[in-house]
Amino acid sequence: MKLLSPVLLLVAAAAPACSIPHISEIMESIQEEREEPQPQPQLEEEFSKSDVQTLTFDQRLDHFSSQIDCHQKDNDECETFKQRYFYTSRYVHKEEEKKGVGINTDRNTVSFLCVGGEGPSLDPSVLVDSVHCTGDMIELAYKLHHEQNWNVHMFSLEHRYYGESFPNKNKSQKQGEAYLRANEKELDSDDEYKYLSSRQAVRDIVEFINSSETSQHFDNGKISSSNNNKVRWITFGGSYPGMLSGWSRLLHPDVVYGAVANSAPVQAEADFRSYNDHVSLDLGQESLVGGSKECLDIFESGHAEVAAILEGGDVDEIKKVASTFDVCGGATMLLKDRKNLNFFVGYPLMFPIEVQSNDPTCDEPLCNVQKICDAIVDEHTADPHKPSMEILANIGKQKQAGRCKEVNFQSLINYFSAPSTAKSANNRSWYYQTCTEFGFYQTCEDNSNCPYARGHHNVDMDFEICEKSFGINAKKVKASIESTLAYYGGWDLIPGDEKSAVLEGQKRLLFVNGNADPWSELSVNEKRGSSHVQTINVPGASHHFWTHPVKESDDNHVVEARQAIYRHVYDWLGINEDSPRDYDLKTE
Known about the structure:
The protein is α/β, with parallel strands linked by helices and 588 residues long.
């Protein structure tokens, strides 16, 4: 199905992927900040041709401090900041069209909200064709509009402290990435992230939906006051935005009518060792994403070989390892600090492999798990006596594209400790949230199935980053995670003692997960979590891959997952379709 003109599709293709940042991606960002800036594509002219409006909204800075109405005129007591949002009426019938199809604007109007979160900043492509909400939300809006004659208003709300919605410490109107570029030093303060949390973000969504800012887009602001007839809002999101989408419905069912939570790891956890256990499954099983036992064996033995050399302390051998893997700073960097050694072999740095973003249909060399595993096995077959670490080094250098491998653990702490810049702000905001809410630290412990060097990444290393970068010690990190679980309810989705209200919020709440995605270990599925919510399992799919732009090469299971999401939402809206159920899309 073709949604928009080829020009807009090409523009959207330039938008970066959205998922929880991988440590190897952050290290690449650190290296990029040291290099000469590369010219970026000029997209403003192309975006101006689209029908997406870029707007701002006066959002309350702190939803939990008072009940002052921030939207009363001349109210100086309420602190606000400019939160960016995007809007399009592309799938809203014009007045003359309404007459032809007999649309009742109350009954047949719905609002879709694509929730913003971590990762690269949003831009107008979020409502055109991007990884955020295309495959589920935008495609569904097209179907509702053209096949069912519905009006679908589409919005996307940028998360506070990301992109251009970054309040500065002086609460002035200047903010966002442009402000960060001009005032990097000014933002170095103890309370820089005082109002950054998922709890504030959920309330941002509620405030936005209830505001006069959004109502102006519906029939000149005239919305029926009856709860039965008011415009219904359905939220969509993938990864952390998927968590926010689900929590918004869970906690505020009177405001959010339904929610799709894609790849949403709602079970906060400090020591997330099952992430790398799942990476091993992906590397070792052909049925998931094209791995093999032989591939996993070589991958594990290569890391073990390097770890043994580094542990042995032979300087000449360590120099060979540093040269073989093109380590930035050479053997000196590996010998400088024990943490650098652990960082190199216990994190996905010696051989980065981003299983969570696996694309089975990509065309480039070494662009997915199957192609990487095929290359590893082929090189071993060609020379069975070649050490596994040399095989990984040879293939890894092809992926490095001429860059040396950054292994300085202190550089990571320096990166998060330094004042935010336009490039680092989003990564800093997210890591701060891991320290104050979620954890999610992907360890490689001795008693795990981690494919890297086991025992070289324990959760204390991640706690150290929190303490040295943000002044948050391990005790506080653990306490904040427990607080998050109590507030939202984790897998069970039963926060606090409000069980009667929560059951309402669990209706019209859909969790969708790919079984190749390591983040699915912390999400709700058909076997784990609340039995009141609806679920879809997508075989072979990575992190919310079905929300990405639609391609003819998409796997059948991804196509079926999208269709299942559409059927659920149709049912929520009372549109006659096949009766939805929990979908476990079995491998044929």
